[in-house]
Every structure is written in C-alpha cells, then in structure tokens.
C-alpha cells in the first residue's frame, strides 16, 4: 500500500505541491485577519476578504509557477533555489499590494498589518516546508541500504518509460532512479513517471555531482555507435558505474524480464564495433559439410564452433590439445543443440603428423579451419623452437593432410603480427601463410589465410588482464604510453573469417577491416572509469616498457602484397606471392631439424633467412631453450 502511495506522489508531484501551497498561502492570509480582529467572524469584511484572499493566492501561485518553483527537485535544493523562492514571494506580495490598492480603493482598505503578516507567514511556511522536506529526504537517503545505488537515467523515451513502469510494479533492490537527462530540449525541466528530467547528456557530469549519482543507466537501445561513444565519453568524465538497457524489442521476443537484462557497459561499446550477421555465403560454406576446427577450444576456435554449429553442418569435429577448453565448448554445444548436432571432440596435438593423418582419414572433413597456434609474443621469444614446432609444423601437418584427403577448403587463421614481423611468433605465422600459399599453387584444395588483429576478450588479450588488475586495486600495467592496437570482437572476427574463407581462391590472404587503431593507454583509462574509478587517483597506471619483439604499431598488410576490396566492405584481399614450392619446402626441412635440436639462436637465424621481412630485435638465447 505504501509503495502505491509513494508511486502516486511521485507521479503527481507537481500537482500535489501546488495544492499544498494553495492551502498554506490561504491559511497564511487568513491567520493575520484573526490575529488583528481578535475574532473569527468576518461578516463585515466578507466581500473584501474573499476577493483579496483569492487574489493573494493567485499572485503567489502564478509567480511561483513562472519562476520555476514547481520544476525544481527540492530534495536536492541548494541556496540558489531558496533565494529564488524568497524573491518570488517578494514579487508576489508586491503585486498583491499594488493590485489591492488599485482595485479596492473605494472600499475599506486591507489593513497594513495583514499585508506584512500574510507575506511573512506565506513566505516562511513555503520556504520552511521545502527546507524540512530536503532535510528529511537527506536523512532518509543517508539511512538507505548500501546496495541500493542512486541512478541517473539517460534517455526519456519509450525505453525509459517501460523501465520506470517496471520499477513501479517491481521495485529494484539494487537501483533507485533519482533523475533523468535527455537531448530533446522540449523534455528538459519536465518529468517522466515522476522522475525529473534535469538536463541533456552534456549535463551528465553536473547532474551526477549535484544529485550524488552512483550509477548511470543508458536507456536508449536504438543509439547508433557514434552517439553511444559520445555519451559514454561524457559518462567517463564521472566516476560512476555505467550500465546499458538492451533493445526492448529483443527483450519482448526473448520473453525475458527487463530489469534482469540491464547490463554493464562493455569495452566493445566504447570502441563502437558493429554487430556482424552471418551471411548466406558463410552458411553455405559449412552447411551439410563435415567441418574440422583445430584449436577448437580456444577463444577464436570456440566461437568458430558456435557459429558453425548454428549453420547445421553434417558433422563438427573439434580438435584441441587442451582437454579442459575442448570439454567446455563440447558441453556448451551439447546443452544447446543436443542430438541435433553431430559433434565429435578429439584431444590431439597438431605437431603429431601421424595422429593428424589418422583424424583426417577417419573423419574426411570437407572444410578445415586451422586455429591451433601458440600466440603469446613474449613467451615465444623465450621459446622460439616451440613456436616453430607448433605454429609452423603444426600448420604444415594439417595442411598436408588436407591436401592428401581432398579437403575442399582450408582456412588458416593468421595475425597482423605476420606483417613485417619483429618477433618470433609473427615470423612463424608469416611462414604459415607462406605454406598455404605454396601448397595452393598446384593443389585442388583451396588454401586461404585470413589475417586480423587483436580480438576483445580473447585468451591473453589485454582486456581480461586489465579487468583483473582493476579488480585487485591496480596498478594497471601498460607497456608504452603510445602503443596502439586494432581491436574487434570475437563474434565479429569469426563471422568475417568465415565469409572470407568462403569467398577465397587458392593462395589468397584476406585482411579484415579492423577499424581505427586504439591507444592502449586510452583503453586502460576507459576501463578504469567504466569500473567506477578515477585513473591515477583510485587506480594507478604503470608503464612497464615494450616487451621483447613487441611493436608500437601493428600493420595489417605487407607492401608487396597490394590490396583490393571484396564485395564485403570489411574484407580485403592481397595478391598471392610467387614462391618456389620445391625450394621452399626444402628450407622447411632444414628449419625443422634446427627446431627439434632446440638451438634457439640458430633457429631465429633460420627464420630470418626464410622470412625476408623478419626484422628481429637482438635477443640472447640459451642453447638449452
């Protein structure tokens, strides 16, 4: 019952305040008459009393309304609001005095003491009532449960209205919506479901400080990426936790509860990456086909398996050396698809050529996505022979088996670090590209490679590391203040990867549009702010220096490859390099012998000889690896 009363009071706040003032001002005018006459009978003053009382109340209400006394949130009132109220009272009294003098000059005049006392009572009571309310609200807020956070709502449209209706029916134990902002000028100063619209999105920092906001909830699901980034950049000027309301239409389609789907802002929102829908050409690549994914338990490999499973393959074969990740994605797909998906999982290393051959002989895949690789740059600098064994010869084993067993399409997942590599990992991935380009020259299998940069949230990426560091209180470690990287989301990368794989011809190297380069320092600062902290004050940022083999800037295409756009504006293709297949594979045999001798220094020199663009930084290696 009390909740209904509170909801009614919030909904009709302005009307109730006007009614309260009418009563207070009327009593303020009546009481002086009682005091000066010493009696409650006003028979001799009937006409004058009634008319002048009505005029007195009208003066106050009209002036209060014009001066915005019913538009302020009095629970947050500062000295300026009280000064405006005193000024409004003075103006109202002046109008009343002038008006009564001009209108009732032939009748018995209103006593001067009534002017004075009624003005004093009306001004004092309206002022003290608001001051008392403010003190009461502040005392009540101080005693509120710590878990109930003060929320600023961004947006006053349909989504906000739906959310507020949901709150009125099912009050949230976690959030208390205090006020609202909206960029529509005609909405500012008004209210929605009893919640005051206190400004535009540019006013967010000011409103946050004024109303002691702890959480900002963005309730505009239809925002385009540019507008979302702009609003988030304004929110980043505060230390509030920022959350986003998802698309209402999707919620209705899903049949999910609205409040349960309010989510935290992700770094993807700040970077503004588009959502990519899986195209028909991608679906056709794997539909009713036997598809094998090596490294299927990894961040890219597991998302590949999810998207492939959604396209109804004849069979999906997951190959991974790490049993925990393979088991995890297996259970996820079994829960989602059950018997509808023909799923096989095999624990195997791509280094083992005999095991790889046996898997291909047994399953006879039509399409292979090769995602298995060592990718941590600093670790591969310290163990270059392991990078060569796994990346280069793991790719070689899988690619040779694909050719032997007539796989129609082989897709290598490559990296921007293969471009003019400065580290061992990048050089090995460039060699992987060269392997598929060499095999593509005379093979019926269509060998292609897809090259892209960092993916958000992948194993070993900076995002999970930053989040862990923030959660532990810092410091957040950044290698260099000027280091930049390209980023895309895992689902986006995989969707484009599948489409590029479907459209490729033998030997093509596809390059995905990674958007604009992002400064890692900006990324760290944004994550700290989105976590509700202030960089350099609450969470320190520490610069650790570039790691071995690390570049300030990543490149996506080699100069000699050229570049042309495909039908998809986010996918480009480089021209295949001309390689001497026989000579190249002879050099690979020598590289393999050196790798398995575990002589790191000779191995790096052999990589330099095989990859002309490899510009390796000086590094001292122990011959024991």
What does it look like?
It is a single chain. The chain has 625 residues and is an alpha/beta fold. The chain folds into 3 domains: 2-142, no CATH class; 149-265, Rossmann fold; 280-458 and 487-511 and 561-610, 3-Layer(aba) Sandwich (Rossmann fold), CATH 3.40.50. A 9-stranded mixed β-sheet has the order 10-9-8-11-12-13-18-22-21, with helices on both faces. The longest helix has 31 residues, at 112-142. It is elongated, with a radius of gyration of 35 Å. The termini are far apart. The relative contact order is 0.07. The model is unreliable at 141-146, 249-256 and 258-263 (pLDDT under 50).
Regarding CATH, which class of the largest domain?
Answer: Alpha Beta
- Protein structure class: alpha/beta
Strand content: 5-15%
Overall pLDDT confidence:
78
Residue windows where pLDDT falls under 50 for at least 5 positions:
141-146, 249-256, 258-263
What oligomeric state is this?
single chain
CATH architecture of the largest domain: 3-Layer(aba) Sandwich
Structural domain count: 3
Task: Identify the CATH homologous superfamily of the largest domain.
Answer: NAD(P)-binding Rossmann-like Domain
- The number of helical runs is 22
Helix content: 40-55%
Q: Taking strands numbered 1, 2, ... along the chain, how are they ordered across the largest sheet?
A: 10-9-8-11-12-13-18-22-21
Biggest β-sheet description: 9 strands, mixed
Distance between the termini: 74 Å
Tell how many strands the DSSP assignment holds.
22
Radius of gyration: 35 Å
